[in-house]
Amino acid sequence: MAPDSALWSFVLVVGLLTLTPGIDTALILRTAALGRHRRAWGVVLGVQTGVLVWGVLTSLGLTALITASRAAYEVLRWAGVVYLLWLGGRMLVDTLRHRGSTAGDAPGEVTVRNSLGEGWRQGAFTNLLNPKVGVFYVAVLPQFIPDGAPHFTTGVLLALVHIALGLVWSAALIGCARALRVRLQSPAARRVLDRITGTVIVGLGLRLAMTG
C-alpha cells in the first residue's frame, strides 16, 4: 500500500471509530455538560494518552503478546469490567444518595470534580483498561504501515493521527455540551444525566464481561 493511500485509509477507519458513540463520548459529554470544562479536557487528554500508549505498545509488538496470552488478556478484561462497573455504579448510587438534595455541589466538591488531573486519571484508566482498544490496534495498525517503512516510527505517527482526530472531535463535543449547561442547572436534571451516563457505563461493563 502506498504511503498516501495508507494514511488516508487509516484516517477514514479511525475517523469512523472516533465518531462512534462509546464510553469516552459519554464521559466527555457528561462532564462538560455539568460545566466542569477543566475536568472534561482532563478526560480527553487521559483518553488520548491511552491511545498513545496502545499505539506505542502495538508498534513495539507488545500488544500482540498481551492479546495472544489468554491469561494476560483476561486479567486486563476483568480489570476493565470492575472499573467500569465501579465508575457507573458510583454515579448511580450518588444520584440515589442525593435524591433529596436541592442544593448544588457541596462546598469543595466543584474543585475536586473540576480537576484536570482527576479527569485525566478517569480518561486514561477508562481507555487503558479496555482490552478491545488493544485488540483493535493489533488488528488494524499493521495493515496501514507501508512496506519498507520503519514499523515503530510509522506506527506511532499513525497513533498521533488518531489522537489529532480525537482531539478535534472532543472539542466539538465539549462545545456542544456547553449549550446543555443551562438546562442542567437544577440538581434534578443533573441526577438524570448521571443516571443515564451511569447506566450506559454499567451496560458497557457488562457487555465487556460477556464478550470474552
TrEMBL record:
Q: How does it sit in the membrane?
A: Multi-pass membrane protein
Which subcellular locations apply to this protein? Cell membrane
Q: Name one GO cellular component term.
A: plasma membrane
Chief location: membrane
Going by the UniProt record, its keywords in alphabetical order are: Cell membrane, Membrane, Transmembrane, Transmembrane helix
TM region positions: 6-29, 41-69, 75-93, 157-180
Domain of life where this protein originates? Bacteria
Any Pfam family hit: LysE
Which range is the signal sequence, renumbered to this chain? none
The record ties this protein, via InterPro entries, to: LeuE-type
For this chain, one GO molecular function annotation is:
amino acid transmembrane transporter activity
Q: Which PANTHER family match?
A: ARGININE EXPORTER PROTEIN ARGO, ARGININE EXPORTER PROTEIN ARGO-RELATED
- Identification of the protein by name: Putative Homoserine/homoserine lactone efflux protein
- Which species? Streptomyces afghaniensis 772
